[in-house]
Amino acid sequence: MLTNARQTAIVGIGATEFSKESGRTPMRLAVEACLAACADAGVDPSRVDGMSLFSMERNHEIEVARNLGIDELRFFSMVNHGGGGGCATVAMASMAVHSGAADYVLAYRAFNERSWRRFGTGVAGHHTGHEADDVSYSWTSPFGLVTPAQWAAMFATRYMHDHGATSEDFGRIAVADRRHAANNPAAFFHGRPITLAEHQESRMIADPIRLLDCCQESDGGQALLITTLDRARDLAQRPAVIGAAAQGVAGGQWMMRSYYRDDITGLPEMGVVARQLWKSTGLGPTDIQTAMLYDHFTPLVLPQFEEFGFCGPGEAKDFIADGAIEIGGRLPINTNGGQLGEAYIHGMNGIAEGVRQVRGTSVNQVDDVTNVLVTSGSGVPTSGLVLTTEGP
Amino acid sequence: MEPMDTGADTGMVADWETLRSLVGLTGQPTIAPVAVSADVVSMWCVAMGVTDPAYVDGAAAPPAMLDVWSMVGLDAGIGATATTDDPHHRAYGMLSEAGFTGVVATNSDQSYDRLLQPGDQLTRHTTLASVSDRKRTALGEGHFVTTESEFRDHAGDRVGTLRFTVFKFRPVSGGPGGGDSGAPSPERPRPRWNADQAWHWEGLRDRELRIQRFPSGRLVHPPQVTDPATGEPAGGPETAGHHDWVVASGDATLHSWTVTRHPPHPAFPQPNVVGLVELAEGVRLVTNVVGVPPERLAVGMPLVLDFHDTHEDVTLHRFRPVVPPRRDRPRPADEVAAGDRLPLTPIDVTVDLVTGGAVATRDPQDVHHDPAAARDKGLPDVFMNILTSTGLVTRWIGDWAGPGAVLDSVRIGLGSPTHPGDLLTLDGSVTSIADGSTIEVAFTGRTERGTHVHGTATVVLPDSGPTSASGSGG
Questions:
Q1: Run of H or E including B169
Q2: How sure is the predictor about B379, in pLDDT bands with cuts at 50, 70 and 90?
Q3: Could you give the C-alpha distances from A384 to A66, A220, A229, in angstroms and in order?
Q4: Residues of A forming the active site
């Protein structure tokens, strides 16, 4: 049981536009997003005294603090392992403001991962040292397994074999996300829904992952402002109460390459997160009205439904059938379009969409939202959170 | 070989009209320089890996040897070529004089009337069937020349036919394998190691796959510094820092896989198959799977360990399909259905196979035994001759078909040449059954360079197995 459950809130969200070429530096994107989040909350940036990042962020807190004119940072944290750290930045911030380590904490992610560096090209040519994290890639890179899509594909093939899922089942995630993106002016796929047939015709990237199973390499920045629920009640927006936020690593954990577990079709680290969230909030799958599930590659969305108990192991393909995960269905997911349809901001844009659902301001607003589930990177040390309308 | 019409005429050949006038003419019958002999058959069987007892001792000649008997052979001296006034030899000569000095065989369609026995003395009757306009291929520009031959025995009865096409081309300096292209080949990502894993990579250099073993007997891969079950350091408390291992048997099954397509990595063949294999010892490792076309990958398929050197100081493991042994009992026709797959069979293309195959098929062309001559003709190394490709394909079909099966015809088309160092994987399936016992097999042989060989073969299977024919004998 987390003692900060329902005690803190996300009070501001701010983002740049999402694009394939921002035309400016990632530092500018970070600062713009942070200023927008402060403005959204009605908090002067000078009151920010904490920053919470995850490890691939290259705009370090000291740089952003100088730019925002912050004199004192009392809390700063960087969670390891990239995209799994999105919700963990909120977990760190929540713990910090709940404990009094800080009053207002900014969590952000900003990059040019399309125009500067193709993020999807992975680690070929990297990791040339002899430390443990360099060496860990030696078990895969020399064989040509170097990109995130390729790492994810190895799980997908076995998931299909063990559970009878098909490429079309993966395609249903792609179709749902792009349908939602079609209504979102901020999304790459705004006005461009796709059909299952188009998914099936899209070219193979790393079997069985097709082009339309993949997220969008993106330029952009997203920031969140977190404070206590007491302070939140006096700010500009309806608070998105952090019901709980938690991290997870499970046995046999690797970065995207946990291939040595008995069963490689699940995401047990996501199960670690799920158990903490349900226990600390007293909620369960039937209490969730909409979910922002990390969707860098569609095959790794399916086991998330299973780890959070929306369905049993291997049953996700049945759970998502018949439009269940689209607007009007029993659990609409990724109502911003997700990372497949809106933009790949390393999952931070999914947290912002969760905030909008709680506020009632999403472009694909779900009726009567009280609880939203948000997850971070799948296949890596990860995190998740529940946002809610309800305080303690 | 995928020719493109150059759109140009035939102006490079001085007397094109004379050359064209030879088409349709049949030359003088030529007597094969050697009679069918058990020794030549035995040598051919060794070169091709044939173990069929019907042939290994030379009691009969494998049908695919049909045109071996009329090859000029090495008897005439290495590098010798026949020079006669026959229309097809005149055509070859005119094209060579015009600069089209390179020659590769592209197609061979053989059919057989009967099995040949030692002592059969063949006579060959060859007609120049066609000379193409100038075409452009990966090898350069040239002309396709097709001949049609009949082989007759001493009684004058036809024993087989051969329709044969060669590409006479003008070698391109620095062509597909030329040494002066200058572009460095990109390096595949190197493994990195430290004292905790060095023993694993050193083992691969010695061509053994080492799996970490803890004092408890537990096997772990990838290696760790302590036993995850007991917390004991690798090698045991008294030998901390040292490592113990077992050498993998090499047997494995495919647990999962992907084919890396985009973005293509320039150091890897396309498509590149990465497998997650489960070793017989119970641990998994990521590796490459070779010799399996993507459409034939299947979770659970048996694989066997192989090694390849990727850097000056690095050897990697890779896995290939398990090849079943030659079938030791007849395969009755009524047990075969259209769509049946023949076993995927990877063959290591070695210098021995290429040059030994050329010798065993009595092929004197220098490009099959002399690397310098091959490079002069724009190729990176010696390459397999069509008679060896034919021999390997027919051996593979025969090993699947089992005793009593007789090859009736084979149609071979060659694509990209195959050179020492390649892995040539034969794949195919039964396409039809006629007259109850004649089956057609369609096949391809692929290397990392592309499709080396493709074609069809017809085989007459026994009507039913001798066990059922001989009834209650047992």
A1: strand B158-169
A2: confident
A3: 30, 22, 19
A4: 294, 344
Cross-strand bridge partners of residue B26: B127
CATH 1.10.287.130 fits A8-117+215-388, yes or no: no
Choice among B215-224, B291-300, B416-425 with the minimum mean pLDDT: B215-224
Interface check A161 vs B, CB under 8 A: yes
Facing B192 at nearest CB: one of A118, A130, A203: A130
| Stated pTM of the model | 0.90
Domains of chain B by start residue, with CATH: 4-172+326-473 (3.10.129.10)
- Smallest Cα distance from B183 to chain A, Å: 19
Q: Is A145 on the interface with B (CB under 8 A)?
A: yes
Q: What percentage of chain B exceeds 90 in pLDDT?
A: 69
ipTM of predicted assembly, 2 dp? 0.95
pLDDT > 60? residue A77:
yes
A390, A6 contact by CB (below 8 A)? yes
What does the alpha-carbon distance between residue A61 and residue A80 come to, in Å, rounded to a whole number? 15
Spell out which residues of chain B touch residue A255, defining contact as CB-CB under 8 Å. Answer: none
Q: Find, in chain B, the residue whose alpha carbon is nearest to that of A159.
A: B256
The answer to whether A143 contacts B197, with C-beta atoms less than 8 Å apart, is no
pLDDT in tens, B361-370: 999 888 999 9
pLDDT at residue B76 is higher than 60: no
Give A181-230 as a DSSP string. HHT-TTSTTTT----HHHHHHSPEEETTEEGGGB----EEEEEEEEEEHH
- The nearest alpha carbon in chain B to A126 belongs to B189
Amino acid (1-letter code) at residue B326: R
Distance CA B228, CA A253 (A): 13
The pLDDT mean for chain A works out to 96
Angle at A232 between CA A231 and CA A234, to 5 degrees: 75
Residues in B closer than 8 angstroms to A158, CB to CB, are 255-256, 276, 299
